[in-house]
Write a structure and sequence with these properties.
By secondary structure, this protein is an alpha/beta fold. The protein contains 13 helices and eleven strands. The chain binds nicotinamide-adenine-dinucleotide (NAD) and zinc ion.
């Protein structure tokens, strides 16, 4: 399956399927100008779990840099290491960089590609469910000690090659986390699809075929939005549904404390409660979603570990704060997002309401 992504700055395709690495890379190399060198950036866990398959199926010679896993990969130190590696390997503007891993490897590699010699081509080879989101759309970043993703660039890949084979070694937690972004894509685009997702008996136990269709749908939602608004001036903000409160709780938990998608589900419930006030979302639906999240093992209890005062400090630091005002993506109804400014005092009120609802549903 191929999904075109047509952004203002660059056009490319997402190729998705099972065991497609060899054929997709081969056809990409036919299309691209000849690379003088292929470099693969990956992380320790990915390389341990999938390095053999990758080496056996990657049809060209390459040099590999194995980096620390998780958010550590997106540190200033690792950013420097990665550049040093490219310099040592005598990479030029004609070299091609492969980002082989989850969102962390993808974000770091994309930013390295954007900055090495003012920009070299790179390809995303995502290995997590979450990366169906992060690998598409060209947001690249590293973290600053004072905040996540604060340093980065919009820089689109030459292609995204999504071999479902790689998802076979994901932990249950990473599957759960990645499915949160699939659910987000359904929430902001399509009620029927969302209802289908909510009837899945176990979100961590989906067949490969089914998963591939969900990932394709998610990528289509993202591709459509970034085609319209590459640099988040308007509709791209919708992709932040669940991410304002979600980022605050993710930061409060310390990066790595909660998986990104776990925090996003927590944030989506908060956004639903706000959507009851500003849109037509019903309390019944919010409760149904909360119950679904609870039944599927999303760690909602984390909310009670952090008083609102702790979250507040992170909320006001969010990148979505514009002219000092907090911006939330809310839903008129499922599939119809909009952006709403919310006062901090109302955030506190809704936070209290959330905690009460959690006590009611998660007995
Ligand atoms: N650029 C964007 O648009 C965007 C969007 C969403 C999230 N993000 C970023 O993505 C990151 C989260 O991405 P993620 O959830 O993929 O996290 P990740 O890249 O940290 O991967 C999660 C963990 O799973 C391991 N892993 C990855 N693939 C594996 C596989 N196939 N088998 C076994 N283990 C594997 C990793 O080593 C890591 O320990 C965050 O840094 C977030 O900021 C970026
Ligand atoms: Zn996200």
């Amino acid at each position: 399956m191929r999904i075109p992504v047509n952004t203002a700055s660059h056009q490319y395709e997402v190729v998705i399927g099972n065991n497609i690495l060899t054929s997709a890379i081969a056809s990409l190399y036919e299309e691209l100008p000849k690379a003088d060198k292929t470099i693969v950036f990956t992380d320790k866990n990915v390389w341990e779990a999938q390095g053999n398959y990758f080496s056996e199926n990657f049809p060209y010679p390459f040099e590999v840099l194995v980096m620390p896993a998780g958010e550590e990969c997106k540190s200033f130190e690792n950013f420097k290491e990665a550049h040093s590696f490219l310099i040592e390997q005598k990479c030029t503007r004609k070299s091609l960089l492969m980002a082989f891993g989850g969102g962390a490897v993808g974000d770091l590699s994309g930013f390295v590609a954007a900055t090495y010699m003012r920009g070299i081509p790179f390809v995303q080879i995502p290995t997590t469910i979450l990366a169906h989101d992060s690998a598409v759309g060209g947001k690249t970043a590293i973290n600053h000690p004072q905040g996540k993703n604060l340093i980065g660039a919009f820089y689109q890949p030459e292609a995204v090659i999504y071999d479902i084979h790689f998802l076979g070694s994901l932990s249950e937690r990473e599957i759960r986390s990645g499915m949160a972004e699939v659910i987000k894509h359904a929430m902001i685009s399509n009620e029927i699809w969302l209802q289908e997702l909510l009837t899945i008996p176990s979100i961590t136990n989906i067949s490969n075929e089914q998963l591939a269709t969900y990932l394709k749908s998610g990528i289509e939602v993202k591709a459509k939005i970034v085609a319209e608004d590459e640099t988040e001036q308007s509709v791209r903000k919708y992709l932040n549904f669940g991410h304002t409160y979600g980022h605050a709780i993710e930061a409060a938990a310390g990066y790595g404390g909660l998986a990104h998608g776990e925090a996003v589900v927590i944030g989506m419930i908060y956004a639903l409660i706000l959507s009851e006030r500003y849109g037509k979302v019903t309390r019944t639906f919010t409760k149904t979603f909360l119950q679904f999240a609870y039944d599927n093992g999303y760690p909602l209890e984390a909310v009670s570990n952090y008083p609102f005062e702790t979250l507040e400090a992170f909320l006001v630091k969010d990148k979505k704060v514009e002219y000092g005002e907090l911006q939330f993506v809310l839903l008129h109804t499922i599939g119809e997002p909009f952006v709403q400014t919310i006062e901090l005092s109302e955030c506190r009120e809704v936070d209290l309401e959330y905690r009460a609802l959690l006590m009611e549903v998660c007995k």
